[in-house]
Amino acid sequence: MAFDGVTIANVVSELKRELMGGRLYKIAQPEPDELLLTVKQPDGTKKLLISAQASLPLLYLTSTGKPSPMTAPGFCMLLRKHLQNGRIIGISQPGLERIVHIDIEHLDEMGDLRRKTLIVEIMGKHSNIIFCDCDGTIIDSIKHVSAAVSSLRQVLPGKPYFIAATQDKLDALTADREAFQDVLSGKPQAVFKALYGSFTGISPILAQELCYEAGIDGDLPTAALTDSDYGHLFDAFARMVHAVREEDFSPNIAYAGGSPVEFSALPLTMYGFERTDMDASARDYTIAYSSMSALLEHYYAEKNILTHIRQKSADLRRIVQTALERNVKKYDLQLRQMKDTEKRDTYRVYGELLNTYGYSAEPGAKSFQALNYYTGETVAIPLDSTLSAMENAQRYFDKYGKMKRTYEALSQLTEEVKAEIQHLESISNALDIALYEEDLAQIKEELTLSGYIRRKAGSRAKKQKIASRPFHYLSSDGFHMYVGKNNFQNDELTFKVATGNDWWFHAKQIPGSHVVVKVDNAQELPDRTFEEAARLAAYYSKGRGQEKVEIDYIQKKHVKKPNGAKPGFVVYYTNYSMAIDSDISGIELINE
Question: Which sign does the torsion angle of CA 564, 566, 570, 571 carry?
Fold first, then answer.
């Protein structure tokens, strides 16, 4: 799943078609390493998302906006100062590098026409957005790279911009047949590795595709290729270069086993034909898209959200994990202490038997044989030879009393700690399924109310108003199914949204979401809806990914909440159960 040079060429082709001549209407910086440019064109406005995130660098046209901070960051303010209302006069890509130059013409403070360049580098953790003057001098960048970070190139204001030649690769657009064979034959490695290691813009998946089109096993060493093999491979390579030069792209996503595995700007024929040409039950296929931007927005939308939320929730995860580890250690210690009290009743019996039969014990004896009138068996009672029988009896009663008090205290404490562990695990599950910052706000509020986060001085000590909403699904039979994203929503769904005859689902003895299926009056729920609701309960639980998850289900009227119980905690006694997988791919999600 590489954002390679050919993919960049496809994006550049679309940008030239959609943005050339347009004016920069808005410049926003929604995230520290992300820009959202709004460009005015005669046929409407276009939005360009540029992300230099180390984990997910992206560049594509989008139809959706993103909220921006109240105060714009310095880099955004600098761009607004220079480029606001500027006109895009050029969009280019040097060779097949993962770099895009956006040339913008604007008027300076004196009213003179100037040209600036916004350079986008899509290079994994080295990704950056660099703002340059017309002579190539860096004005500023969204990430500063000093000499302490990189000895090859500094990206700082006032420094000249250049592309660091960190790899000895040839330009795929200019390589001829002779150079092609010479460079590959000089690398004693697998053919596909030699391909992507020798030419700019080619990713491992594209190299495998070229080998497939040439009828060559890409894992073969280059030394095993004949002149004929090199000819077939260069022909496939030349067709790729021709498609890039002519901007004849075919954006597509390849699926294997029904799951997306790769995307490319050129056809991935090794994964089979397009889905439209195959039976609907096929598991290996490709799906074509009208544009690379549409493909990237679809492919990365969910991944981008999850990456963003993972970063935003890092502090909450650390708090939950620390508290969970501490409570688990405490619980293990308490269980060991509980085990040490298992002999308490034995000591009580020893004391009673010594009180009853101790008069016959010999002075100085180290043990005493007595008939246990509870079991009818003879037991040997260890004695302290320096004490009398009655004193030994009192010693055993003292041990019994101490262990009994310890057991009674630990019985309550272990239940409390166990409940706290279950509570923290449920919060951990809520963090796993959170998609939006509103979801995190509710989880943070729950942690604050539970004492794990200190409320800021002066803030009101009251429950935060719920802004996030549960997941809403529609079953194949038309029944509305709701899934709580966190404990607050679980309580809300179960005890305010659900009515008596609605059905309630939850993973058995596993932290997870409450799932409620709404029914009208005495309407019967079809078996298929039962199964779909159970799959939702399995998917939104810690059991997600297991082959089978046991799900309890029951009508809501049988679900109760004990007084003083933690958010999301309920009890029920007469329920049904089923074991089911956590595949929810065929269940319709309703976006609200």
Answer: negative
Q: What is the 3-state secondary structure (H, E, C) of 219-266?
A: CCEHHHCCHHHHHHHHHHHHHHHHHHHCCCCCCEEEEECCEEEEEECC
pLDDT in tens, 452-468: 988 776 555 454 455 68
Predicted structure pTM score: 0.62
Which amino acid belongs to residue 386? T
Angle CA(343)–CA(346)–CA(349) in degrees, nearest 5?
155
User: CA-to-CA distance for 49 and 37, rounded, in angstroms?
Assistant: 7
Distances (CA, A) of 71 to 31, 67, 68, 77, 484: 12, 12, 8, 9, 34
Q: How confident is the model at residue 520 (pLDDT cuts 50, 70, 90)?
A: confident
Average pLDDT value for residue range 308-336:
91
Which pLDDT belongs to residue 309? 81
What is the torsional sign of CA 140, 142, 147, 151?
Answer: negative
Place of tokens 């209302």: 85
The token pair at 99 is 């770099």
Handedness of CA 195, 255, 34, 320 (dihedral sign): negative
CA proximity to 582, closest of 550, 543, 542, 539: 539
Inter-residue contact 201 to 235 (CB < 8 Å) = no
SS (H, E, C) 470-482: CEEEECCCCCEEE
Written as one letter, the residue type at 372 is N
Q: Which of 253, 247, 264 is nearest to 209 (CA)?
A: 264
Instruction: Output DSSP code: residue 493.
Output: I
3-state secondary structure of 568: coil
Who's near 572: CB < 8 A, 6+ residues apart? 504, 552, 554, 558, 559, 560
How far is the CA of 396 from the CAs of 148, 343, 344, 527, in angstroms? 71, 11, 9, 61
DSSP letter string over 259-299?
EEEEEESS--GGG-SBGGGS-TT-SSEEEE-S-HHHHHHHH
| Average pLDDT value for residue range 395-405 | 94
Selection from 195, 297, 200, 198 nearest residue 251 by Cα = 297
Q: Which tokens belong to 544?
A: 């997600």
Query: At a CB cut-off of 8 Å and minimum separation 6, what does 492 contact?
Result: 466, 470, 484
**pLDDT over 60 (residue 315):** yes
Residue in the block written with tokens 């921006």: 68
Distance, C-alpha 543 to centroid of its chain: 16
